[in-house]
Structure formats: structure tokens, C-alpha cells
Specification:
alpha/beta
Amino acid sequence: MSISVQAQLDAAVLQEADHATGRLERLFSRLFLGLVYPQIWEDPVVDMQALEITPQDNLVCIASGSCNMLSYLAAGPASVTAVDLSPAHVALGRLKLTAAQHLPDYAAFYQFFGCADLASNADLYDRYIQPYLDAPSRSFWEARAPFKRRISVFQRGFYRRGLLGRFLGAVHLVARLGRVDFAPLLAARTLQEQQAFFDLKIAPLFDMWLVRTLAGFRAALFGLGIPPAQYDKLAADGDGDVLPVLRERVRKLMCDFPIQKNYFAWQAFARRYDPSPAGALPPYLQQHNFTALRRHASKGRIVNRALTDVLAEAPDGSKQGYVLLDAQDWMNDQQLNALWDEITRTASPGARVIFRTGGTADILPGRVKPETLNRWTYDEMESARGTAQDRSAIYGGFHLYRFQG
């Protein structure tokens, strides 16, 4: 990996480089050189309702696992530009874009990314994807890691990989120590059954000494992609204790949405998607969206750069939608203002910005310059709706701003 990539990651994450927090931040930035998120953990359905995507819209997003980028493309915008500082995330996004355009049919696409654990996926890659993949991404997926090609993860359970996949594996280990079997939760037919499972089986886990001890370490949540600065925002919602915040967000994930309609819960508690014919899937993996995704996939691109730098090269008033995920939680005031200067310059009237926060509060007032932020209107009603309806349940707040011009 190039020095410039590491430098960009350090710039994005490092805020207090001269003491213990700085050491944790440097460790976190190095973890992002590899795959962190095999699946994105922001709900694209909530995003698309807030973005109100039209064929004239040019969108910019942070890629992560790229489920969002492909889902937006299925809605038929003019373009989607995705950015990510992790080279592994860029390679994953390009793999998905290429597969959407060149795999023979929906069945092959679903097998590769929906199942992601079949031996025949190697043949699909070699025959239909590899010939059309860009050289850097091809080098990434065909590298030996250490004995097999990296692409073989799609034969062996891709969603168990990456930093998040390993974190969820550790969660399942702790659950087994607490004698918890998630099968009854996955078979539940009512929200009441899901709530009863949480109350009886999961809530007691948060009283375990091991769980309470681990939750006290800021590095314990690196597997969720939560750096020290964001950990502190989570803990602030619990009056300095992150454990009650985590307990409530696990409860929301388990109990607030029917398990048959929440693919985030399936990934967390089964480590795969629901295999039943009516099982919940991300929008880009749903069969009725495949034709549109294939038609519009050429309008997507993903680059290994910082979002502020990419926007600096865009013309004035050229963008209609911005998806920032939770990246602003990582930023200091200087970085935050540089980003919003470019967003405001490139936004057309009526443009929308959406983002998540680890804590519940909107982090922009008091940090972004008033002369910039006053050109935007915060949509309180839509933000509250998005917070309530985001099935991933990992964030404290969903936020929507509209540009007044």
C-alpha cells in the first residue's frame, strides 16, 4: 500500500497524536488499510427516502462496503461517485460494479454476493468478472493471502471476513459463553417474541463481568469501525458509560423491526443473509432491482481518495446529494469546515446531505462556520424519521440537511 494512502488515513483519524489516544488512533488508521466492512451498516432504504433520487441527480458518497452505492444506482441517478480511504473497500466496490455489468444473470449475481460462500464463485469470477476488472482491483483480489487467492473469500463465507466479520465472530463467542443460541430469534414471528428473547437471553449478557470489562476499552469497538473520538461520543450518551448505549442499540436491532425484514439482524446474529425466498436483502441484491442496477452500473465510480479532495475538483453547483456516513464523527473542526466549504460550493439549490452520528446529537452547530451552515436547513422531521427507521440500529442519529442556495 502506498505511503499516501496511509497518510490520508492518518489525517482522517488522528486527532490527538501525542498521547495514549493518539496511539489508539494510529492503530485504528492502520486497520483501515484492509477490509473493514464486507457489508455497509447504514440502511440504504432510509438513505434513498431522504435523498429523493431523480434521473438528474449527481450523488457523492463514502463507499464502505458499497451496498449504498449500488443501491443508489438501482434508483437511476445521473451518476454516483463513491470515495473511500481503504484500498480494500475500493477494490470491493469495483468488484461489485463489474459483476453487476458482466455476470450472466441475477442468479449468478445473488450467488456471488448474496450467498458468497459457494465453490463455484471462483469460476464466476474467472469467466465473467476478471476479464473486465481494472488492473489494481484485479491485483488485489488475485493476491495470495497467504495461500489462496483473496477472491476465494467468496467461496468460504465473505461476510465472516474483514474487521467487522471478525468482531461479530467474537460476539458469537461471548454469546456461547453465556449459553445463547440465536436460532429462536431468527425463527421469531412477532416483535413480542423478539422482545422476549432479548429480555431473557441478551439483556443478562450486559451484566457479565467479561462484557462490562471489554466495553470499557476504547479499542474494543474498533471492529465496528468506531475510532476513539466516536467511542467518546457514544459514551457521552450514557453519561460516560458506553455499556447502556450498546445495550439499547442491540435491543433496537433485535426488537424494533420484524426479523424477517431486517437483513442487518441476520448478518449480526446468523452472519449471513436469510436464505428463504422472501428473506430481506439490501436493495442492490433484490431481484426486482437487478435490471435497473445492470443498466445504471456504468454511472458509478469509486476512487481511493478523501471526499474533500474529490469535491475540490468538482464544478460549482454540480451535485445534488451527499452521503457522509459517520465520517464527520472522526473529524476535527478544521477538517469539518473544509468539507462543508466544498459541499456548499458544489451543491445545487435543493441539494441534500445525509449523515449518521455515533451520539444522538447533530454535531454541526457550533463547529461549522455560521456563514456556511446558515445556507442549509436542518430537516428535523425527516431526521427523526430516519433515525427511527434505520434498521442497522448502530447509530444514535440520522441527519438530513437541505441546501437553500
